[in-house]
Prior knowledge:
The protein has 197 residues and is an all-alpha fold. It has helices at 7-32, 38-58, 67-70, 99-127, 134-192; strands at 79-80, 89-90. It is rod-shaped. The relative contact order is 0.03. The model has no long low-confidence stretch (mean pLDDT 77).
Amino acid sequence: MAxxxxxxxxxxxxxxxxxxxxxxxxxxxFKILSLEGxxxxxxxxxxxxxxxxxxxxxxxxxxxxYWEKLYPGLDDYNARINPLTEGPTKASGPRPIxxxxxxxxxxxxxxxxxxxxxxxxxxxxxxxxxFSKTGDQIKAMGNFYQKMNEAITEMSAxxxxxxxxxxxxxxxxxxxxxxxxxxGNILGAYKNMGGGN
Length: 197
């Protein structure tokens, strides 16, 4: 990392600019009021400022951030800023700040923060739980699910058997109806022949 990008260099640069400007102002005040030392202070402050402006001219400029790319509509005074993916939407004019809307939004944010706090509390409670026997419980659950799958397979097989049985009973009922019809015809014929009495 270049020296001019370090935090201490930036702090020192700003400090020297501030001190140099203060010396120039006090020197100018002394000069205006014709007080002793005004010439020296004014000269020292102007030399300091000239040196700092020389350094600022040599150093490359800081990187520019184009925030309007991240927040579309930021460079348009009349735009309402929507979520990042939606882009700007035009309003009919400058929107006045509605205190109720702001209060509702802040209330929503407060609710979310409270939910986050509860969630973090739950996580802290989880930290204190003893998970040493969890492996055995997972194995037991695995065995339970395996047995349940086997039972479901057997039930589906018995459902198939039940369907077959139902179909066979339906065929049997049909056959019995036909047999009853035939038997009724035989009884009718027997009665007609006079053998019924």
